[in-house]
């Protein structure tokens, strides 16, 4: 896919994430051949044999667009984010982890030391390696081995470098990836700082189950597996938390179509600063009582409150700001 120096240069990178965003790119299938004809992929370590030296050898600003997926969890992630920022004209936070931390960001409930303690010492499934912690530098007969430093907490890409565009989703759906590539290749980029590959509406706005108006009242929340879910009725009306009211649309509603509530992976819509607290506010408006004890019972029925409200957005939340700034 390399060769011409007249084609736009594109880079993809995978930092602290599951890699699902990169899988979405490969799901372009035969359209990847078209992409390869239109652009010069200069860095994509997930799929092709590139080295960091290949990026270092590029001129500053030589990469036209970098799709950076994953949060910043260690010193290597941070170094490459800064390197790619310097080499790229346009930096896209690609997917939920880069945008708002996603599932790895939930680890910000704990500090680095307690995470290391849990992973390398107290987890029951550990074998003889129990208690051996990774060291940044180790001497072995062959020489010195270095490992990236595990940071105190996970940062979003925009907390480390300047980001031009934000592309949400866990992962962004393949049609949105295709749309964004076409927009970029057509030179029709919106204003810097825009969300791309998603819609302005909320998931509720486009949900076919949105027929209840303001009549929903809830006394107790259930988890999806505890309810015989009616596929024609709004999840919230069935007492199952759905983040549709506080989530940006654009995914095509695969969860709703699969009879599962929205978990919020496309992040907050325009005007919502903190997705989790906005959800709590929306839920509070649905509670069917003013009695403090009944209200407490309703709130207690939410299992894993933080993980439910901030499943994708904790590292980019007001809670995170209060803890780390
Ligand atoms: S709360 Fe969920 S199920 Fe109900 S209308 Fe909104 S997106 Fe659809
Ligand atoms: S319905 Fe919600 S959780 Fe599911 S893909 Fe869409 S935004 Fe993500």
What does this structure look like?
- With 325 residues, this protein is of the alpha/beta class.
- The protein has three domains: 9-103 and 152-185, Rossmann fold; 114-149, no CATH class; 203-324, no CATH class.
- The chain is 32% helix and 14% strand.
- It has helices spanning 20-26, 31-38, 52-56, 75-87, 96-100, 102-105, 112-122, 174-185, 203-206, 254-257, 275-284, 292-300, 305-309, 318-324, and strands at 9-14, 40-43, 63-69, 72-74, 88-94, 137-140, 143-146, 150-155, 165-167.
- The strands form three sheets. A five-stranded parallel beta sheet has the order 2-1-3-5-9. A two-stranded antiparallel ribbon has the order 4-8.
- β6 and β7 (143-146) form a beta hairpin.
- The longest helix is centred in the first third of the chain and has 13 residues, at 75-87.
- The radius of gyration is 22 Å and the shape is globular.
- The structure holds iron/sulfur cluster (SF4) (2 copies).
- One iron/sulfur cluster (SF4) binds at residues 203-204, 207, 209-210, 234-236, 242, 244-245, 256, 261-262.
Do you know the CATH architecture of the largest domain? 3-Layer(aba) Sandwich
The CATH topology of the largest domain, please? Rossmann fold
Give the helices and strands as they follow along the chain.
EHHEHEEHEHHHEEEEHHHHHHH
The share of residues in extended strands comes to 5-15%
Instruction: Name the strands of the widest sheet in spatial order.
Output: 2-1-3-5-9
Q: Count up the helices.
A: 14
How many separate domains? 3
Shape: globular
Identify every distinct bound molecule in the structure, by name, code or SMILES.
iron/sulfur cluster
Structural class: alpha/beta
Q: Would you count the extended β strands for me? A: 9
CATH class value of the largest domain? Alpha Beta
> What is the distance, rounded to the nearest whole angstrom, between the alpha carbons of the first and last residues?
43 Å
Largest sheet: 5 strands, parallel
Helix proportion of residues, in percent?
25-40%
